[in-house]
Design goal:
Number of strands: 26
Bound molecules: alpha-L-arabinofuranose
CATH superfamily of the largest domain: Glycosidases
Strand order of the largest sheet: 23-22-26-20-19-16-1-21-25-24
Distance between the termini: 18 Å
Shape: globular
CATH architecture of the largest domain: Alpha-Beta Barrel
Largest sheet: 10 strands, mixed
Radius of gyration: 22 Å
Number of domains: 2
CATH topology of the largest domain: TIM Barrel
Length: 486
């Protein structure tokens, strides 16, 4: 690997490390919040502490599909007056609206996260959305600011990131892109800037490789869009029959790794279409939902999308983060789905118990790359072969932070073969390894359980040495390392 320490590959926005909390399963209730002795929902201190330690640059809410069913007026005012609704999308459970605008935005303040509020285009009106925006953001005298104050919040929250619908091609209304583009133009018109707070308008982007969606929406509405929200999940099999989270063999490992790498092609192709309409690259490509999607855990409530999280999920996450870092001219924000107890979660809870998943630890190992400059490199990625197919074995991110420290993350997805990577840096005299950590295990499906929550955690790595002016890294099979160099 040759690293050009003088060549920037772009700025790694902290927003690429964004999160997502939908009213789905045990993500909100029994996730970020739990019931106290009086039966009222309170924020879970252990979960919030763990997420604060990780750093949450942004948090997307209330969905997901739920956003296009959500009427924000149900979630404000005294709890006893809030109506109950049925969450038809996710398990048909009763939603009592205990967590609404005030509770979510208080959580964001606690986490020091920028909220991303997704408005309802699918079943709501322009007036509903404009009023919600005004309720949250208007600083002066207005009907909605008055209502907000009556509900106990004097100052506006100054939320800028605003989704205009979610998956409008699917659960958000099964629209054609032409129709959505027109609706987007209409709804977004009524989000007015107040003082310093301007709406950062996020349009529903494509599903996976739906390039037609990107083409049409960019052509008809691109000049009014600030961020286009691509959604793409990594799954084995089909939507009707996905793979298992833990009970998989090496072919299942390989197929998932291969599918994870599709992200590179998707971003390349969607970016090329965006370039036609936005050559200045003003519009962000946001990967607003990404991660692994397995069959949900046996015995868990249907529709709750609760799944375990193994070393395979972790190395998929690092591989995809590396891909984002190769496209920093467009990819400025992303949200892994979802934070607690849903899909590729950071944290799983069981009553009072909680655990950090292997994916949490990947985000932790990648923390030094946030807000750093990605450095350009050339890498012989090697090949990992299985079932007559081959994919690159190694992926990487190299960055330099404000304090001039370089961090290297290397992932070896090959579950059988260790690799040695020799790194030459164009200008780095007398370098030394400051620290190094590794995430790896004997088993491909290693994971944390409530009885063994630290079965898979990063540990000190002693396989990185400086030799003849090169950094030589002995990378075990199925591992991720992050090395800090001075
Ligand atoms: O993250 C789960 C669901 O996946 C979201 O609600 C939806 O936007 C997507 O299809």
């Amino acid at each position: 690997m040759t690293v050009d320490t003088g060549a920037s590959n772009g700025h790694i926005s902290r927003h690429i490390y964004g999160h997502f909390a939908e009213h789905l399963g045990r993500g909100i209730y029994d996730g970020f919040w739990k019931k106290d002795d009086n039966g009222d929902y309170i924020v879970r201190d252990d979960v919030v502490a763990a997420m604060k330690e990780l750093g949450v640059p942004n948090l997307r809410w209330p969905g997901g599909c739920f956003a296009d069913y959500y009427f924000w007026q149900h979630g404000i005012g005294p709890k006893e007056d809030r109506p109950t609704v049925v969450n038809n999308l996710w398990g048909g459970v009763t939603e009592d609206n205990s967590v609404g605008t005030h509770e979510f935005l208080a959580l964001c303040e606690e986490l020091e996260a920028d909220p991303i509020v997704v408005g309802n285009v699918g079943s709501g009106t322009v007036e509903d959305m404009a009023n919600w925006w005004q309720y949250i953001n208007h600083p002066g005298e207005s009907p909605m600011a008055k209502l907000r104050r009556e509900n106990g919040r004097e100052e506006p929250w100054n939320v800028s990131f605003w989704g205009v619908g979610n998956e409008s091609w699917g659960c958000g209304g099964h629209m054609r892109p032409e129709y959505y583009a027109d609706l987007y133009r209409r709804f977004s018109t009524f989000l007015h800037g107040y003082g310093d707070v301007k709406p950062f308008r996020i349009a529903t982007g494509p599903s996976g490789n739906d390039y037609h969606w990107t083409e049409v929406v960019m052509e008809l509405a691109g000049d009014r869009i600030d961020g286009l929200d691509l959604h793409n999940y990594t799954l084995d099999g089909t939507w009707a029959k996905k793979g298992e989270a833990i009970d998989f063999d090496e072919s299942g490992w390989f197929r998932m790794m291969k599918r994870a790498m599709d992200m590179d092609e998707l971003i390349t192709n969607h970016s090329a279409i965006m370039d036609e309409y936005d050559p200045e690259k003003r519009v962000w490509l946001i990967v607003g939902e990404w991660g692994t999607w397995h069959e949900q855990e046996e015995g868990s409530t249907p529709g709750f999308l609760y799944q375990q999280n193994s070393l395979r999920d972790a190395l998929i996450a690092s591989t995809i983060l590396d891909i984002f870092h190769q496209h920093l001219d467009r990819v400025k924000m992303a949200n892994i789905a979802q934070t607690i107890n849903v899909l590729q979660a950071m944290i799983l809870t069981d009553g009072e118990r909680m655990l950090k998943t292997p994916t949490y630890h990947v985000f932790d190992l990648y923390k030094p790359h946030r807000e750093a400059t990605a450095l350009a490199f050339e890498l012989d990625r090697g090949e990992y072969e299985r079932d007559g197919e081959s994919i690159p074995a190694i992926s990487a991110t190299v960055s330099r932070n404000d304090a001039d420290r370089i961090h290297v993350s290397l992932t070896n997805i090959d579950p059988n073969e260790a690799r040695t990577v020799e790194l030459s840096f164009s200008e780095l005299d007398g370098m030394s390894v400051k620290s190094a950590r590794i995430l790896t295990a004997e088993e491909m499906n290693a994971h944390n359980t409530f009885d063994a929550p630290d079965a898979l955690v990063p540990v000190v790595f002693d396989g990185a040495k400086v030799s003849n002016g090169k950094l030589v890294v002995s990378l075990p099979a199925k591992s991720l390392v992050t090395i800090a160099i001075d």
